[in-house]
Amino acid sequence: xxxxxxxxxxxxxxxxxxxxxxxxxxxxxxxxxxxRRPKMAGKDIGEVLGREQxxxxxxxxxxxxxxxxxxxxxxxxSTSFTKDAFPKIKEVIEQGVNVISIAEExxxxxxxxxxxxKQMDEIAKDNGVTVLGTGVNPGxxxxxxxxxxxxxxxxxxxxxxxxxxxxxPFGESVMKTQGVGTTVxxxxxxxxxxxxxxxxxxxxxxxxxADALGLELDSVEETREPIISETYRETEHVKVEPGMVAGCNxxxxxxxxxxxxxxxxxxxxxxxxxxxIDTGDYITINGTPGVNMSISPEIPGGVGTIATAVNxxxxxxxxxxxxxxxxxxPIPRAIMGDIxxxxxx
Amino acid sequence: xxxxxxxxxxxxxxxxxxxxxxxxxxxxxxxxxxxRRPKMAGKDIGEVLGREQxxxxxxxxxxxxxxxxxxxxxxxxSTSFTKDAFPKIKEVIEQGVNVISIAEExxxxxxxxxxxxKQMDEIAKDNGVTVLGTGVNPGxxxxxxxxxxxxxxxxxxxxxxxxxxxxxPFGESVMKTQGVGTTVxxxxxxxxxxxxxxxxxxxxxxxxxADALGLELDSVEETREPIISETYRETEHVKVEPGMVAGCNxxxxxxxxxxxxxxxxxxxxxxxxxxxIDTGDYITINGTPGVNMSISPEIPGGVGTIATAVNxxxxxxxxxxxxxxxxxxPIPRAIMGDIxxxxxx
Lengths: 345, 345
Fold this sequence. Notes:
Two copies of one chain form a homodimer. The first copy, chain A, is of the alpha/beta class. Chain A has two domains: 4-135 and 302-343, NAD(P)-binding Rossmann-like Domain (Rossmann fold), CATH 3.40.50; 144-298, no CATH class. Chain A has helices at residues 13-24, 45-48, 62-69, 82-93, 114-126, 144-150, 172-178, 184-193, 202-213, 301-311, 313-318, 339-343; strands at 4-9, 28-34, 58-59, 73-76, 98-101, 130-133, 155-166, 219-228, 233-234, 239-240, 245-256, 259-269, 280-288, 291-295, 322-324. In chain A, strands 3-2-1-4-5-6-15 form a seven-stranded parallel sheet, sandwiched between helices. In chain A, helix 1 (13-24) packs across helix 10 (301-311) and helix 4 (82-93) packs parallel to helix 5. The longest helix of chain A is centred in the middle third of the chain and has 13 residues, at 114-126. The termini of chain A are close together. Chains A and B meet through helix 6, helix 9, strand 14, helix 10 and helix 12 of A and helix 6, helix 9, strand 14, helix 10 and helix 12 of B.
């Protein structure tokens, strides 16, 4: 029985978490870690992760690593955008290796980058490998889980889902992209200029759900609104006075025949509990039967993304070649035993 | 583009519901209905279902129907047990046609009928067709949905889930198999004699979840206890005085190293609201992260089973051959458009 050989590319919070998760699972070999920063190269992966020495060194060169280590799959954790992910994915799949990317747009890449997605699909098929984009959202809560819940429905009239989370644990860059600590004027200016972005993933989730159900949408619309605080809230990185912005309420809508058939909300702010708001993942399906689901608190973003990406490794290895999405693969699941036994390798 | 051709076998509440659902969906042709009762033969299916004349007659002979109608799949809704379902499934798959069965034991048939499941798998593979057992439970709430929720988990320590429903709408036979309206003595006697059975499906759900996660269980245990009423409850079919039995609390446990790693509860009773109990589907995953999900009210049993079975038709047609279970197939989903387009036929 051969171990599943994995290289992790990118060693931020997500990459490190995925690397550690792989070290803790039976039947996986973390055979390489590739990062951009030259000064990291040559360091022992285990030591960098705060574990025992592994005898495997960090590298800056994915091509050589793949040649030497012959991985089954590369986990990529760097960008949010398909156009940035594309060259990195291409480099890997051209060498005949599967990829899982946590770039949000890669969850359903043809939506924003039709041409790049097509090229990727062709290269993947030519090389007999599979490319999947996933993560907690997009990839899990607001698409995979919604679809699964419709599985018990005869009819679906409309879907409304809301992912309410707490940004307090996050660092300065997240505060900036969500507009936390700005005035309303600064928030609106930031939106216009593109420095405040909200959530990346609504067009991906909405189109994935619609395509899987067979709803032919006329359009997908997005709005971003400031969450104006009524209380004083602060974190290590930001202070929000009453009247200032505590976060961004990002809403995505899938429209068909003038009707909002899919509405996804993702209000992201610091300390929502201060105003009596419970964090959670909430999905309501209006249909036959109706389904009214809540997960409270929400599935946490960081851990959820790490887990979703690693848990999909066996599914991606066994999938047919090309660019796939969560809707194409078997139901996700945790890995609690030797992955070689589970896969029957 | 060719329609998906389906025959429904069995025309009780489930079979009728599936037949109607198929009539209402684009891209499916209900090409036959096969029942046991001779007096039904020759009647128009549409008329029997309370719809327009369809020009398709009910038959008693599945073999001839398959020869004449060349269906892609047969939906079977008759028994709960694999040993009863086996000859009916065999008849269909030997003719090279896929089967979805709602027999509870068929959700994971090798658990109770190892030899029959093996034979079925071989016949299906020899004939290039797929056999799936599914339904709302087993098949959806206490296995597929649990597994999906673990998909965002790095680790799972234990799983507890509870499906709390209301038996009030059901008929006399369900009252009997759940012991509703008995005294405690009668209940315990019924359990011993096998007339009171509780839920059929725990070994299936528990083993499916454990196998998919890679938990190697030491044993699966089941207990059935009377739900003793403190209030007067009644339905059209049964009266329950205080002190009498309002239903059966059936519990299944998956045990590993002496620890209850999977605990599934299914208390089934009439009018649970009378004692302040909210019906619902509740899943708690103790792990990293923990997940605390509730669906309230529960996904209804009848409609949910009808929907789950029909919704899996495209997945079964596209699956590789053999006996499969929900854990092997892509995530379930409703069918809201022309199934030919969704499948790209």
